[in-house]
Design a protein that fits this description.
Elements (H helix, E strand, L loop, with lengths): L5 H16 L11 H4 L2 E6 L5 E5 L9 H14 L5 E5 L12 H10 L1 E2 L6 E4 L2 E4 L19 E5 L7 E6 L5 E5 L3
Parallel strand pairs: 2-3, 4-9
Antiparallel strand pairs: 1-2, 5-6, 7-8, 8-9
């Protein structure tokens, strides 16, 4: 069997990206794994197999097995086998990888998106800071007020904190910047 032409290979990769764009995050279904930056790459491996690279939002993320299953199901339904799903822990995921659309969708869903930027451009590439730093209180996703207070360091998942708006009095999750 001959190798697929580069036009076929490119069309297959584009189709795979499009199929995986529709795979929702299992914990926040209004955003896709691509919009969150969990879907890192879709490529052809040296052996010709489609290779999907995913990165967890943190190393202990309990949703990764579900994400891998959802990716496999989407590729199977689209008849894009054979494929392999790889989990890459480095570079570590950062909220900087979220798209602007993901941030807007989080806000509309009632979750305050992360504020600030976590990585800085360095001559050798991106450098992620793991030092705690002061970040402004997130704006309420419901009324937009910046008069908010943190109630708990952890919200409905470990990557979110629980806040309350002091103006509209509504509680909300804040997706912590990493």
């Amino acid at each position: 069997m001959s190798a697929p032409s580069s036009a076929t290979r490119d069309a297959t990769l584009e189709r795979a990206w499009a199929v995986l764009e529709a795979v929702p995050d299992p914990e926040i279904p209004v955003v896709s794994i691509r919009e969150l930056g969990i879907l890192r790459d879709v490529q052809r491996a040296d052996d010709g197999v489609l290779e999907v690279v995913i990165t967890p939002t943190y190393s202990g993320c309990p949703a990764m097995s579900q994400i891998a299953e959802d990716v496999a199901h989407a590729l199977d339904v689209a008849r894009l086998a054979p494929y392999r799903i790889k989990t890459a822990l480095a570079p570590a995921w950062t909220t900087d990888w979220m798209t602007a659309e993901a941030r807007d969708k989080l806000r509309a869903y009632g979750i305050a998106p992360p504020t600030g930027q976590c990585a800085s451009d360095a001559a050798a590439g991106k450098v992620i800071r793991f030092m705690p730093r002061a970040v402004p209180a997130p704006a309420c996703p419901r009324c937009g007020s910046v008069h908010t207070e943190r109630l708990a360091q952890f919200g409905s998942t470990a990557c979110k904190a629980l806040y309350r708006c002091l103006d509209c009095r509504e509680p909300f999750d804040y997706f912590k910047p990493y």
